[in-house]
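Hey team,

Filing this mostly as a record. A colleague (T.K.) asked me to run one chain through the structure pipeline before their review meeting, and I want the input and output archived in the tracker in case anyone asks later how it was produced. No errors, nothing strange. Just documentation.

Input sequence:
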Amino acid sequence: MGRRNRRSQPASRRSAQPVRTDPVEDADDGAWVVRPIAGGMSSKAYRCPGCNQEIRPGQAHLVTWPADGGFTAVDGPDDRRHWHRACWQARGRRQPPVDRTRNAPRYG
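Output structure:
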């Protein structure tokens, strides 16, 4: 068996993992953690709560969840929402969507 000529790294260097901190946005509806998702990173379709349209696989978008809830593996996935960037930025100016049946009158 050969001899190792490399120096071992100190324990503090080995265990230091980069910590990811996602930006927190404060708004009228509370504090939200906002994580941008690149187009190549999404592999399934999601429904945007702002416009109720589909976010297709491969489309860049945002993932948000409440900052005060403490994102854990148990309750976190239920609190996450996938938004189009424009829908997220316009959420304070929009009214809640009205669900209409197919034969309902449009105005009135």
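Quick notes for T.K.: The mean pLDDT is 78. DSSP finds three helices and six strands in the chain.
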